[in-house]
Amino acid sequence: MSQMPIVIKSPSDMQAHANAVRQKGGRMGFVPTMGALHAGHLALVDYAREHCDNLVVSIFVNPLQFDRADDLSGYPRTWQADLDLCSAHGVDVIYYPDADAMYPAGFQTKVSVAQMTQGLCGAHRPGHFDGVTTVVLKLFNAVKPDIAVFGEKDFQQLMVIKRMARDLDLDVEVVGRPTVREADGLALSSRNVRLSPQERERALCLWRGLNRAMELAKGGEKDAAKLKTAALAEIDTVPGARLEYLEVVASESLEPVETLDRPARMAMAVWMGETRLIDNAPLD
Ligand code: AMP
After folding, report:
1. Rounded Cα distance, 217 and 88, in Å
2. Per the confidence metrics, is the pTM higher than 0.90?
3. Catalytic residue numbers, as ranges
4. Burial, 114: exposed, middle or buried (Cβ in 10 Å; 0-12, 13-18, 19+)?
């Protein structure tokens, strides 16, 4: 029988809970999310469950990290389903603050990772990563996790948070886990529900492009420009797909690479109609 998670809504109550667990020697695990939970989130939850004593999932649609008002207002919110899924997956606590609890009047502090946020999504979503790092540090300070688990689906986010944790001496292990995909390869995303059936079909071009590049890299191709051209060919031909960016970057620094002479990833953002999709894959 799965047990209903406790729902905690304020940072101070969350801290009190974390202190009580830690005083007894318990290990806190944490998976931050914006809700509308799917199998990608649940893979992180299941991994974290295995590596901690007390598991917290946060559900907070963070206004600071949205660069478009319509994306924020239209973001899917599925509280009852999220609660049931957390319960079924052994989550102990859902940390569910509202925007006033997170950003009370007078709030004015921001956390910024300088270089790694300049390219890829950062170049197209002004302020997005400052919003992410600010909220994640606040969530860490409330939940006090020993381990925090993030998806490689948002690879730039994962690496930026790892950098922040190192730079600010955060006492937390930041773990990245592989992207969970639909059977046909589309990366799971809360925003996929916005795709029409036709766009859903066409959205496969991201995965086809990544696959093409991975195949070529596996076959020995080291020229990033050639890999990009091959991936682009899968996207360019699809009606309604508009490329925002397509890059080959070093996996650690996220700097663009011309030759695959160190661990690298291909990352892309593609608009399918009104929906922005991102995906990435390793090229080594
Ligand atoms: P979000 O709710 O979109 O902010 O995502 C919360 C966490 O789930 C982030 O660490 C994401 O990288 C991760 N995530 C989202 N989609 C997937 C996926 N398809 N596979 C693995 N992790 C994912």
Report:
1. 40
2. yes
3. 41
4. exposed
Is the sign of the CA dihedral 47, 195, 117, 213 positive or negative?
A: positive
Residue tagged 């963070």 (tokens): 62
Mind listing the pLDDT tens digit for each residue in 221-231?
Answer: 999 999 999 99
Q: Ligand 1 — pocket residues by CB below 6 A? A: 33-34, 40-41, 43-44, 150-151, 153-154, 179-180, 187-190
Q: What pLDDT, on the 0 to 100 scale, is given for residue 213?
A: 98
Order across the sheet with 275-282: list the strands.
241-250, 264-272, 275-282
In terms of Cα–Cα distance, which of 210, 102, 93 is closest to 143?
Answer: 93
Dump pLDDT digits (tens) for 77-118.
999 999 999 999 999 999 999 999 999 999 999 999 999 999
Contacts of 68 (CB under 8 A, 6+ apart): none
Q: Dmax of the chain from CA atoms?
A: 58
Query: Structure tokens of 251?
Result: 């996996």
Which protein residue has the closest C-alpha to ligand 1 atom 11? 151
Please give the pLDDT value at position 3.
Answer: 86
Query: Can you tell me which atom of ligand 1 is nearest the CA of 181?
Result: 19
